Amino acid sequence: MAILINLDVMLVKRKVSSKELAEAVGITPQNLSVLKTGKAKAIRFSTLEAICSFLECQPGDILEFHEDEDITL
User: Fold this and answer.
1) Buried b (16+ CB within 10 A) or exposed e, 18-31
2) pTM of this prediction?
3) Closest by alpha carbon to 35, among 5, 1, 69?
4) Which residues contact 9 (CB under 8 A, 6 or more apart)?
5) Which residues contact 71 (CB under 8 A, 6 or more apart)?
6) Sign of the alpha-carbon torsion through 20, 41, 63, 53
7) In sequence order, what are the beta bridge partners of 5?
8) H or E, element range at 28
9) 8-54 tens-digit pLDDT
């Protein structure tokens, strides 16, 4: 996928657990896990806004575009 999710990095930088973030933004831990692992096919702007608000970051801190679609983590 050409879009990489750096949510794990932001969680470590902010010293926030996945469970804490899921509760704060109102999504299930399972859906947060899907997002963190890059398996999500889409994200609602409202969810992205809630994540950025809670983690005090910009969308670009979480989402990263790469030309090479063969990138896997």
Assistant:
1) eeebbeebebeeee
2) 0.85
3) 5
4) none
5) 1, 2, 4
6) negative
7) 63
8) none
9) 999 999 999 999 999 999 999 999 999 999 899 999 999 999 999 99
